TrEMBL record:
InterPro entries: AAA+_ATPase, AB_hydrolase_fold, ABC_transporter-like_ATP-bd, ABC_transporter-like_CS, Galactose-bd-like_sf, P-loop_NTPase, Xaa-Pro-like_dom, Xaa-Pro_dipept_C
Annotated Pfam families: ABC_tran (PF00005), Peptidase_S15 (PF02129), PepX_C (PF08530)
Span of the signal peptide: none
Protein name: ABC-2 type transport system ATP-binding protein
Organism, as annotated: Micromonospora matsumotoense
PANTHER family the record matches: ABC TRANSPORTER, ATP-BINDING PROTEIN
Keywords: ATP-binding, Hydrolase, Membrane, Nucleotide-binding, Transmembrane, Transmembrane helix, Transport
Keyword Oxidoreductase: no
């Protein structure tokens, strides 16, 4: 029977498959380059992360802290409000599970609020399984927060313009929130449930959940994933698959999120651990229900009622937000029938609904790229129309897909999409009857359900073709009924049905019905590992007295080729389910035929149908694109050359408010601000992990900053900026072609710059390297020190105006270090400058004119080296005769000798006596004075600034 969903045709862009990418790569690259050149300052986004305190619970007064991140397009403001998306993660995940989806959606112009659901990650509270009183009310408070944002579009006071997207656990939340809060404007629930009790206690003859067969495998993973504060299995995260135009995934193209004044305020206390280790962070009633079901294998009515409270099944009629329901065909947790029930319930209330099936799911991931692209397109198309208010109505076409084979380029799976105007549900448009034969057969139920057949393992999908005859259907524990070879192919789309009979001396039996596709060679495939558990009661002792029972098999999408046979299997045990403990023998039979649902659908056009048009337009696009690219890039370069910050025009390097935060939230550089002026040798100092290397990597364009600006001679530093040619660098160690000599490596490097040979100054660079004849040897035979010297010479090719060196003396011997000291001091002349990072503080003290001290990502001191070292009450006198010097110094009343060393040095506290007077007295006594320096060294100042036990922040 057809659903009440009305027919509509989707006008849609053609998906982009991998073959199209290979064929039209030039066109795509040209379009990307043109776009980048024309809009050099592409809009990005900013993020705000915080612990948000909300109140929920049955009375709405129980506090909980939620870990949130808010993504906002940079162009959004109070004058330019944007619609919002509430993006929920899957069970066992956190807000980071949907980070990529959030970045895709914010790139489409949406403000996106993500959060870690209560009971997971850093959020507080306990897990109530998407309870309307807890998780749903939490989400309502998030809607309140969105409505209060000045940059989020609203429909009325307190009513944000918002869509809700989520996968699995997040998908259930989307449905329940839309039923409870009319402010939701559209929803996209993905791979989620209709009735949680039926999902975990399925029974495919129509019995209530109290008679269902416990899905222990998935239930155990759920409770394992919620048993601790950390995230659970990745496959439960249920990422939402949001993207751009079909066939082209959206890309935010923006920096990684960074913390800062996030949604609202709330305490940042860590979530507490549950007292009962068997419950983890689950609420007591949820845990108790699970323990009862897991212990007995049966659900009582109280447990079913609790699961139903967390199910959309009873509230679908209250959903007024247009719903795009996306469900996976490879899903033994929430099969296609769950989305079907949701679609029918929502449509019955007159709410627009669209259903899309794809080849992934909890067991199949996101499916092939071509299939996931289709789902991404449908998601954004739905949100754009119903939330953003752009684009034509998507309609309610039903789309599904099927694995079509392998890609010729990378051997990856390829899916073909299909569509039809009417949603046929799992019953199909029509039915194809295929007779199956076989006598009634006895089957044994093993004690304690062991050994058991393995049809599917959570996240692993179907194992039928791999385990058949090994650990699949166990001999003696299953019965087979087969058809004749099919005379023509059959496209199955929906839930097949079959009529079975069973007899048991105990009066009941638990069976698992399966439908295999058997090829002419006898290899059997169980589509996506899907089985239909059934519990039969009131059975007679003999099969002749057994009554027929119709079993609805799991909905599938599969093409059964001509010559293949269908095999119906009735098994007594399955590893994924709980079965009766007591051993028993049943007799089973299959009557008549397997009824296969079919759908009259048309293929969604792929790139193969437009291949000739791509070829026709390719040459024209290349010619036109090259002309446009050359013209625009030249204009862009001229704009860059003219864009000089007047304040920094004469300064080799100015770093302003630099910040670098990585995707996992680690902040390597928090706030770094300094300048390097002409003639300076600037030392960048700090303990391991302070942020030195990260600062240099950002400076060289090896990584993008989260915030802040860098100017080189007034030019803002961006990837590909021409001003980079004025910088020479050695960062993160040298890299050379091992089969080339040192000289050839230098020549190859310079050729790659495209600059004239005369500008290279090879002789000066080679003199600096000091490799002698070794410069003609292959670099694979170089020692570490030789490679380091060659790398320094490469950095100095062309005598760049700013030289950036990371640990330049690494691998050099003492004479080479001394020479390097002199080279750097000579280099910083004629308007040139040097920035050097080193952990050898004595060398920095002797080499550098200025220093910046960084600790834990922040500057703790900067300025001339002598100012950082500061004054000292003690002085080091290096003399030719220590004993004689002691005698002379003893004549001074205020002078005291503190320590002496083996190298002829005396550390003296002059106590106000002028050093010149002390030196004069020593010289008059005939004692040679080689050096007089303040006793306090840079190392002493450094340790005073950062602490002797400082380890920085874990630099990257």
């Amino acid at each position: 029977m057809k659903s009440p969903l009305s027919a509509a045709r989707l006008r849609r862009a053609l998906p982009t498959g991998r073959r199209a990418v290979a064929a039209s790569v030039v066109v795509v690259l040209l379009a990307a380059v043109v776009g980048w050149a024309v809009w050099p300052d592409r809009p990005g986004f900013r993020t705000e992360s915080a612990m948000l305190g909300v109140r929920s619970g049955p009375g709405g007064d129980e506090p909980v802290d939620l870990d949130t991140t808010f993504y906002l397009p940079r162009a959004a403001s109070a004058d330019r409000k944007v619609p919002a998306v509430l993006l929920a993660h899957g069970f066992g995940g956190t807000k980071d599970s949907v980070r990529a989806d959030a970045e895709d959606l914010v790139g489409q112009g949406y403000a996106v609020l993500t959060w870690t659901a209560r009971g997971f990650g850093r959020s507080g509270g306990q897990i109530h399984l998407d309870s309307p009183d807890y998780e749903v009310r939490d989400a309502q408070r998030l809607l309140d927060w969105l409505a209060a944002r000045p940059d989020v579009r609203t429909d009325a006071a307190g009513d944000p313009r918002v869509g809700v997207v989520g996968g699995s656990y997040g998908g259930g939340l989307a449905l329940l929130l839309a039923a409870q809060d009319p402010r939701v404007d559209a929803i996209v629930p993905i791979i989620t449930w209709n009735d949680l009790s039926r999902a975990f206690l399925p029974e495919n003859t129509g019995k209530p959940a109290t008679e269902g067969v416990f899905k222990k495998g998935w239930a155990g993973i759920f409770f394992g994933g919620g048993g601790s504060a950390g995230s659970g299995p990745a496959g439960l995260s249920g990422n939402s698959a949001a993207a751009g135009p079909e066939g082209a995934p959206a890309s935010a193209g923006a920096p990684s999120p960074r913390p800062g004044g996030g949604p609202g305020s709330g305490s940042s206390r860590a979530p507490g651990a549950a007292a009962d280790p068997s419950c983890g962070r689950f609420a007591a009633d949820v845990c108790a229900a699970y323990l009862r079901i897991a212990t007995t294998g049966r659900a009582d009515q109280a447990a079913v009622d609790l699961l139903r409270r967390s199910s959309p099944a009873d509230v679908l009629g209250r959903i007024k937000a247009p719903a795009l329901l996306v469900q996976g065909e490879a899903d033994t947790l929430f099969p296609l029938a769950e989305a079907d029930a949701n679609a029918r319930g929502i449509a019955a209330a007159g709410t627009p609904v669209r259903v899309a099936w794809f080849t992934g799911g909890h067991d199949g991931g996101s499916g092939p790229t071509s299939d996931s692209d289709r789902v991404k397109f449908l998601t954004v198309q739905w949100l754009d129309h119903y939330v953003k208010g752009t684009g034509a109505a998507p309609g309610d076409d039903f789309t599904f897909s099927r694995i079509a084979g392998f890609d010729a380029l990378d051997r990856g799976l390829v899916a073909t999409g299909y569509r039809t105007a009417d949603y046929p549900g799992v019953t199909g448009d029509a039915r194809r009857e295929v007779p199956v034969d076989g006598p009634a057969q006895p089957v044994a139920n093993p004690p304690n359900g062991n050994p058991a057949a393995i049809s599917a393992i959570p996240f692993a999908g179907s194992l039928g073709s791999l385990l058949d005859g090994v650990a699949g259907d166990v001999p003696g524990q299953h019965a087979r009924f087969e058809s004749a070879p099919l005379t023509g192919a059959v496209d199955v789309v929906g839930a097949p049905t079959v009529t079975v009979r069973a007899a048991s001396a105990t009066g009941e039996a638990v069976l698992f019905a399966k439908l295999y596709d058997v090829d002419p060679a006898g290899a059997a495939t169980l589509p996506d590992g899907l089985v239909a558990p059934i519990r039969l009661t009131g059975l007679p002792a003999t099969i002749d007295a057994a009554q027929p029972v119709q079993v609805t098999l799991p909905a599938i999408v599969r093409r059964v080729e001509a010559g293949h046979r269908l095999r119906v299997v009735l098994a007594t045990a399955d590893q994924a389910y709980t079965t009766p403990v007591a051993p028993a023998v049943y007799t089973v039979a299959v009557d008549g035929a397997v009824s296969l649902p079919t759908v009259a659908a048309t293929p969604i056009p792929t790139t193969a149908t437009v291949w000739r048009w791509v070829l026709v337009g390719l040459l024209a696009a290349i010619v036109i694109g090259l002309v446009v690219v050359v013209a625009v890039v030249r204009r862009r370069h001229r704009r860059q050359d003219d864009s000089v910050h007047p304040e920094y025009a004469g300064i080799p390097l100015a770093v302003r408010n630099l910040r670098k935060e990585y995707a996992d939230g680690f902040v390597a550089v928090s706030r770094v601000d300094f300048e390097v002026h002409p003639g300076q040798v600037m030392g960048l100092l700090g303990p391991n992990g302070a942020g030195k290397t990260t600062t240099l990597r950002v400076l060289m364009g090896l990584t993008q900053p989260t915030a802040g600006e860098i100017y080189v001679f007034g030019h803002r530093l961006v990837p590909g900026s021409p001003v980079l040619s004025r910088i020479g660098a050695l960062v993160e160690g040298p890299g050379f072609l091992p089969h080339l000599s040192g000289l050839d490596n230098l020549r190859a490097y310079w050729r790659a710059t495209g600059r004239p040979w005369a500008d290279a100054h090879f002789d000066e660079a080679l003199e600096i390297a000091g490799l002698g004849d070794s410069v003609h040897r292959r670099t694979k035979n170089y020692s570490h020190g030789m490679r380091q010297r060659l790398a320094i010479a490469q950095a100095m090719l062309g005598l760049p105006e700013l030289l950036v060196l990371d640990e330049p003396t690494d691998g050099l011997d003492p004479p080479q270090i001394a020479e390097m000291r002199r080279v750097l001091q000579r280099y910083a002349t004629d308007g040139r400058a040097v920035l050097v990072s080193s952990h050898l503080l004595a060398e920095v003290e002797q080499t550098c004119t200025h220093a910046v001290v960084v600790n834990k990502g922040r500057i703790v001191a900067s300025g001339p080296v002598e100012e950082i070292v500061g004054e000292s009450p003690s002085t080091l006198f290096e003399v030719t005769d220590q004993a004689a010097a002691r005698a002379v110094l003893s004549r001074f009343d205020a002078v005291q000798v503190l320590t002496a060393d083996d190298a002829g040095g005396l550390v003296v506290d002059t106590n106000g006596t002028a050093r010149s007077e002390v030196v004069a007295e020593l010289v008059r006594a005939g004692i040679g004075v080689d050096r007089v320096v303040p006793r306090r060294r840079l190392e002493d100042a450094f340790l005073a600034l950062v602490g002797e036990n400082s380890r920085g922040s874990g630099d990257r």
